[in-house]
Automatic annotation (TrEMBL):
This is (diamondback moth) hypothetical protein. Keywords: Glycoprotein, Hydrolase, Protease, Signal. The keyword Cell division does not apply. InterPro entries: AB_hydrolase_fold (IPR029058), Peptidase_S28 (IPR008758), Ser_carbopepase_S28_SKS (IPR042269). Belongs to the peptidase S28 family.
Length: 469
């Protein structure tokens, strides 16, 4: 089943496994192989019980995803096995030693889906899994993959949950910041939206003069060496500041949005006096820009390109997938947002061409986006037994399926819910609609794999447990 011996995670319930995969599933002349990592948890499993696959995406896979939430509850209630796949070119699943531009040609959703197909087929060869139903579960980009697995391998995948899945590739994702704007306008304090608009107008005005730039550096803790006369550096700074709001909207709640506004608007807040946008919500973009030696934010567009080309982290892999498959580029192209005009779509094209080559220009990206949507079906995939779930607050819902594809491919849109929250366990403060959607998801998946509320054959104990749940 695995190409190397499994080792136990610290809690002893999740095993780390490895499986040999082809470097290229679609080129028979390419003979090289590599080891893909995945996690396995079998303490609830009984022979021929369902296989629940939690799909890893643009980051390192972690066993914690098999310890709570939707997949855990389904496995516990139906005597299922849990596995989590790690996406090629992320975490420990590196097909080649580095992420150099030439090596990245083996990175794509299509190759990663074929990796999962091989993993599941290998599992199904084992006697205890021969008759197991397979359920694919994913959130965000892995949500796409869950639906696409059902599309490409309908005889292997019996049901799928696509949570917060942006299945539509789009060259200019201007709607992202529109939704962030809507969230703050609807759930923030009365003057919050205007405050944000004024803040970003202040940035734009500061960039117009040397004195303004000098003052902005002092206000925002930008390193003196950063050339803020350069447009690309201005855009990088504005994007990093807007990311604070993106993060709250994407992952927060209506209460979190309101609290963020209250902190921003509180004139007596020490956080505001010490730059609230940095202090309240330190995001990945800001952390990446922090210069520990100088204790300031180093805004250097060229350095970002150097880091991407080095290929030392997941960032290279994901930027390549954006440039080569999906784009998903956020921009301030829309007038219906308060973040100014300093996140132009052209900057994304520049990142792609400087990082990976001239073929990744606007025309190249437009063509790859078109091919992606043609391959997988965009907003109308030809699938059954897939449920698409999106949250109102989540900006990614603008690229998701918000209406039923068919009777057997329904959509659920959850008011006041954010990115992938349906995959988490119930907690205090969850909207009633979110709690009910989680129940519906579990009911539907059980129904699709042939497990009705009191139809667990002779497993009377499980039947009673399900009735209580």
């Amino acid at each position: 089943m695995n190409a190397a011996a499994g080792t136990f995670a610290p809690d002893g319930r999740v095993q780390i496994r490895w499986i040999e995969q082809p470097l290229d599933h679609f080129d028979k002349k390419e003979k090289r192989m590599w080891l893909m990592r995945y996690f396995e948890r079998l303490d609830f499993w009984r022979p021929n019980g369902p296989i629940y696959l939690f799909i890893g995406g643009e980051g390192e896979a972690h066993p914690g995803f098999l310890k709570a939430g939707m997949i855990y509850e389904l496995a516990k209630e139906t005597s299922g096995a849990m596995i989590m796949s790690e996406h090629r070119y992320y975490g420990k699943s590196m097909p080649l030693e580095n992420r150099g531009v030439k090596n990245l040609r083996f990175l794509s959703a299509r190759q990663a889906l074929a990796d999962i197909e091989k993993l599941l087929k290998r599992m199904k060869l084992l006697p205890g899994f021969k008759n197991s139903k397979v359920v694919a579960i994913g959130g965000s980009y892995p949500g796409n993959m869950a639906a696409w697995l059902k599309l490409l391998y309908p005889n292997l995948i019996d049901a799928a949950l696509a949570s917060s899945a942006p299945v539509l590739a789009q060259k200019n994702f201007k709607e992202y910041l529109e939704t962030v704007s809507d969230d703050y306008e609807q759930y923030g304090t009365p003057q919050c939206w205007d405050y944000i608009k004024q803040k970003f107008e202040h940035y734009d005005n500061s960039f117009k003069t040397k004195a303004g730039i000098r003052k902005l550096k002092e206000e925002e803790g930008i390193c003196e060496s950063s050339d803020m006369n350069r447009p690309e550096n201005q855009q990088l700074f504005v994007y990093s500041e807007a990311s604070a709001f993106m993060g709250v909207a994407q992952y927060g709640t209506e209460k979190r949005i309101r609290k963020h506004c209250e902190q921003l608007m509180d004139d007596d807040s020490s956080e505001v006096k010490n730059n609230s946008l940095r202090s309240i919500f330190i995001n990945d973009s800001k952390k990446h820009l922090w210069n520990r030696d100088e204790e300031c934010y180093e805004i250097d567009f060229d350095e970002i390109i150097v880091e991407i080309r080095k290929g030392g982290s997941w960032l290279t892999s994901w930027v390549f997938q954006m440039c080569n498959e999906f784009s998903y580029a956020k921009s301030t192209s829309s007038e219906n947002q308060p973040f100014g005009k300093n996140i132009p779509i052209e900057t994304f094209y520049k990142i792609c061409t400087l990082s990976f080559g001239p073929e990744y220009d606007e025309a190249g990206i437009e063509e790859t986006v078109k091919k992606t949507n043609e391959l997988y079906g965009g907003l109308t995939p030809n699938v059954t037994k897939v449920i698409f779930v999106n949250g109102e607050l989540d900006p990614w819902h603008r690229l998701g399926i918000l209406e039923d594809v068919s009777y057997d491919a329904p959509s659920k849109f959850i008011p006041r819910s954010s990115h992938c929250r349906d995959l988490l366990p119930n907690r205090d403060g969850d909207p009633d609609e979110l709690v009910e959607t989680r129940k519906y998801i579990k009911y539907l998946i059980k129904h699709w794999i042939g497990i009705e509320p009191c139809d667990l054959k002779d497993k009377r104990k499980e039947c009673k447990n399900n009735e209580k749940s």
